[in-house]
Amino acid sequence: MTTVGGRERAQRADARRNVELILDAAETCLARDPDASMGDIAAAAGLGRVTVYGHFASRPALVDAVVRRVLARADAALGAVDLSGDEAAAFARLIEATWEVTTRSGRLLVAAEQALPAESIRQAHAGGLEDRVRELVGAGQEAGRFRRDLSAEWLVAVFHAVLHSAAAEIDDGRLAPEEAAGVITRTMLPLLQGDGLLQGDGAGRARAEGSEGETRP
């Protein structure tokens, strides 16, 4: 005879299994088609729309959950990247590894941009992922390898914006996926290094010194 407690445990197990099925299906569908509907995701999960909505009240809520799960996996993967030594070379390695993770997510970034407010996306990146980039930028600034006229917070925000822009360009067919990591690297390193601010020229030094008293973004 099944007890009340036994039924409740079984129901909770079913709910957990359904959530995983929904998240797996949503990740697959959104990676392929950023406009995939809740009906598409329900069909891919082998569940009804009512069940999907029972766990995720709206499509944005589901997209947000998928993005956070993918980013948690990305954080674990990027934790293995060697960020020691020269900060510029370390940042290039971080970009390469970050883009490999992004590529595996297909068009999910585009789906997130379409479905979620910018603040939600930024919050999803908070924690280990963002801290890793911020610490590397800060170390480069302390070592004199990266510019100090812009705050580390601003440079991290620009890095995330460049990543998302690259995903959008690929989705629109204006950037080849295999070229993205190189394009991002060639965009970010000159920005981080200041285009002459760190080259030792008189004008660069004057600009750097003059910026010390300015309000940073």
Could you walk me through the main structural features you see in this protein, from its secondary elements to its overall organization?
The C terminus is likely disordered. It is built from eleven helices and no strands. It is mainly alpha-helical and 217 residues long. It has two domains: 57 residues, Orthogonal Bundle (Arc Repressor Mutant, subunit A), CATH 1.10.10; 152 residues, Tetracycline Repressor, domain 2 (Orthogonal Bundle). 28% of the residues are buried. The chain starts with a helix and ends in a 6-residue tail after the last helix. The protein is elongated and about 65 Å long. 72% of the residues lie in helices and 0% in strands.
- The total number of structural domains is 2
Taking pLDDT < 50 over at least 5 consecutive residues as the criterion, the unreliable ranges are 199-217
What is the name of the CATH class of the largest domain?
Answer: Mainly Alpha
Average predicted confidence as pLDDT = 85
N-to-C CA distance: 66 Å
CATH structural fold name of the largest domain: Tetracycline Repressor, domain 2
Instruction: Please tell me what the overall shape is.
Output: elongated
| Helical residue percent band | over 70%
What is the H/E order?
A: HHHHHHHHHHH
Name of the CATH superfamily of the largest domain: Tetracycline Repressor, domain 2
List how many beta strands DSSP finds: 0
Structural class: mainly alpha
Instruction: Figure out the total of helices.
Output: 11
**Biggest sheet, in brief?**
none
- CATH architecture classification of the largest domain: Orthogonal Bundle
Oligomer: single chain
Q: Report the C-alpha radius of gyration, rounded.
A: 21 Å
Strand content: under 5%
